Amino acid sequence: MGIFKRLRDLTMGSINDLLDKAEDPVKMLNQFLRDMEEDILEAETSVAKQIAIEKKFKQQYDESEELVAKRTEQALKALEQGNEDLARRALEDKKEQQARCNQFKEQYDISKKNADQLRGQLSEMKDEFTKMKNKKELLIARAETAKAQKQINQAMSGFGTDNGAKGFDRMSAKVLQMEAEAQASGELRDSSRTLDDELDQLDKSGGVEDELAVLKAQLAARKQQQ
């Protein structure tokens, strides 16, 4: 029956294949449960109809069985009253009623068997639905863990390489270049000094020496006076 296809799918493990293809396992799991609920409602309707058929045949069988017993009693009563013809007609009708009773009994047995089978399948669906509901939270937790692990692995696979490492290498090279340029500019400045610059520097240093010599002479003169 089509209403039990969902149950067969789940018990055969196809839920795992569907989850592998799902973009959002959480949404898919919720959809599975909604689909199962719809299937269960459909199955309950079918079971209810079959039970109604079973009860109808059961009622017809019980009524025909009672009528057979009634015709037997009526035939016996007619004989007691000396009415053999009436007794004979009662027994003839009893025979017809017995044939109908047998038919109702056969139909009732078949309908009861079908109803019992559907009851069992419905019970199995409900049990499976309960298991899936209990399993849903675990599957969702596993899905979220796997998703987080995948994101971390992807981040770690590029960590310290490619863009980051290349960026650091570029900055290191740039700093070295800046240092080299600074050193070169200093050397260039020293090499560009003129003769006048050097002579001026000598004059500056010579003036200090002259002043120092004057101070020494003054100090020597003080000592002699003492």
UniProtKB/TrEMBL annotation:
Descriptive protein name: Phage shock protein A
Ranges of biased composition (kind: Basic and acidic residues): 187-204
Pfam families attached to this UniProt entry: PspA_IM30 (PF04012)
KW Coiled coil (keyword) present: yes
Keywords, alphabetical: Coiled coil
Bilayer-crossing regions: none
Residue span of region Disordered: 179-204
Organism placement in taxonomy: Bacteria, Bacillati, Bacillota, Bacilli, Bacillales
Organism of origin: Paenibacillus eucommiae
Family annotation (InterPro entries): PspA_VIPP1 (IPR007157)
Phosphoprotein recorded as keyword: no
